[in-house]
Queue: 4 jobs
Job 1
Amino acid sequence: MRIQTQCNLCEAAEAKVLCCADEAALCLACDQKVHAANKLVSEHQRLPLSGSSSSLQMPKCDICQETSGFFFCLEDRALLCRKCDVAIHTVNSLVSGHHRYLLTGVEFVD
């Protein structure tokens, strides 16, 4: 595993949010700059990448809609619970290579 700590935009500050639509980990300053551009981008769903996520209501898994999602798959653009993540990403070598992030900012790299 490797820790994704830098903002994908400025590459200097620590990433604090993951924008699902942009598939980007952003620091707070870049997140504010990018998502203030217009009404459309201001509505992008963004998930916290820091330890502060435990104090927030975690969104449900996009697949089962029953449990909280803790993994975000960039290729599937989906938020997944552990059970659904394992079920989907162990099927074959193509999907097992997907880039998945814990909402704490840890990327699973095979």
Job 2
Amino acid sequence: MFKMEVWESLLTSMRTGEVAEFWCDATHTGLYPIVSKGMRLIAQGKDPLEGQRHMCGMGNLFHYHSTGFPELDEIMRTPQPLIFIMELLQVGDPMSYPRESWMMEKDEKLQTVPVLHMRGNALVKQRQFSEAASKYKEAVLLLKTVQSREMPGDIDYINLGRMIIPLELNYCQCMLELEEYYEVIEHTTELLEKHKDCVKGYYKRAKAHAAVWNEKEARRDFNMVARLDVTLASLVGRELKALSERMKEKYWEEKETYWNMLEKKESKNETEEEEGQSKEAEGGDIGMQGRSESVTTENTNECEEERGKEGGDEKSMVKPTQGEEAGSKDKASLSKTEGKDWQQMLRLIMFLQKEGNFLIKEKHFQEACGKFTEAIEYVDFLQNKVDEQGDDWDSLEKVRLSLTLNLGQCKLELKEFREVVQIINKLLKRHKGSMCYL
């Protein structure tokens, strides 16, 4: 039963528990690369015949020109003596041990599959999902090995493919229970590529997508389930409702997390600013004390002249300059942007836009207006900091366009038509040549 006959000859010279090293010349090691490739694939949990065409093993090897392992390819090109280290664990009666898949004939493999299926089901009832998954996977591997020896399109090939479906679905169910969601997505996708009408495949993939927050993909698969089997429409409706609730919960959790981070950042910046201002004030007091003595020694005539002009000076000091007025306006407009860098404001714009869109879906139009208005203020601030002819300005203008249209839509829903006209008129002035209308 050995794929390399020389191994059986070597083992007959050993005692139980012995570890021995054997040197074999090239005449006995020619098939080793093919045997080793299959054993390595089995150790990785893969089908040793995966990817092969319908031909003999040597034919497949020459067709692909490689075993997939560089060291084995080297031995194939230049056969050479090899040293094998073996340990004899146990000596038993013939056929008294579990036979591996490569030892079995076709009929033996087909007889083993239902046994593995039943064992897997029993383990599932005991909630031993990991062990059950290994049984299902072993059964699938046996069927794929048999299927690889059939001609694609033949009735036997098709029937074997149908036998694989329930085993694959059971394996995926175990993976769902073990929260291995990406494993489920991978296996169900492979299954659905061959069997596009598999309702349970779409359902399990939808559950996996929903678990990893792939809302679009989950909805698509749930809708496909309802389309393929109308009797499951009520189940799909409940799943979609549950998905919406989970997405809402995730949205509010992310919102709370984000705002907490933002508030910590702002409080830290405010504390740093207050400390800086207090240090500046202390430095100013010291400077004034140093200059007090020099001020008292000034010429008395100059002091009298200053007293004569005192009234006029007071009037001029009360009136602020144009620069001071502009500065006060700037401070008022920049109050929301203090303590935030460029990247932080960009993320905040995207977050406010997403939050506004969510509020529109919930028909909270007044709150959505506030989100879009705040986001537009941040866009205005960033646009004033970049070149109007640059790519950054154009990108921000596209964001502004979307935000303004959404704001206008909210105002329409609130029946604030005058404000809608004003908003859109301003927008059309900036986009005269574009297809921009509401």
Job 3
Amino acid sequence: MGGSGSKVKGAWPFSGSGDAGTDGNEQSLARLKGSRNATPFVFTRRSSLYYDEDGDLAHEFYEETVVTKNGRKRSKLKRIQKNLIPQGMVKLDHPCIHVDFPIVLCEE
């Protein structure tokens, strides 16, 4: 549980000290121009969708196979895991706040 946080040890991306952009988070965090501080907003995310050989886009792909057992024909779905291309980075409709943002935004 809690696997959505960053895996960087010792560098806090919002503190402004140290080099926080070396761990690959510069793609998901918008950086201010001329400054080393990162904004707390995330504008892109990695998509969980894949393209298959035909160009179809989905989370999972299956093919129907016919199995003959004891003279009876049964159809089964076999999951396809080869020749799938990830969709890549997707722009979010609305910016989200990064999970490592260290400030409480609202306290009731």
Job 4
Amino acid sequence: MSQKFKVRKLREQKPEDLLKDLEKLKGELIQLRTVKVSAGNAQKLGRIGLVRKRIAKYLTVINEQRRNQVKTATKSSGKLPVDLRGKKTRAIRQRLTRSERAQKTQRQWKRINNFPLRKFALKE
């Protein structure tokens, strides 16, 4: 296990295979933790961190695949689910859109049409 773990290989796998491997890793983590409690050897204790990181990589790939599936499924409707939209800040999210900002009330239209900007001729 001295080889570095490649996430690239995970992305090529099917979701079912990923979930099976994830369950195996979780089982291994449970075994390592029981060895830790029963004062096992140090080699196995060092492996806990590696297994946890590997689990995190599996979960990341699974979540990426799910997000991509949802994106392709909702592409035609044009509306993304809330958790897939850009986070930004609350103020930016609640800001008016360009078209909403450009809209004017009846009263504003009357004022613009009836009282246009005056043009002054300056003497020199």
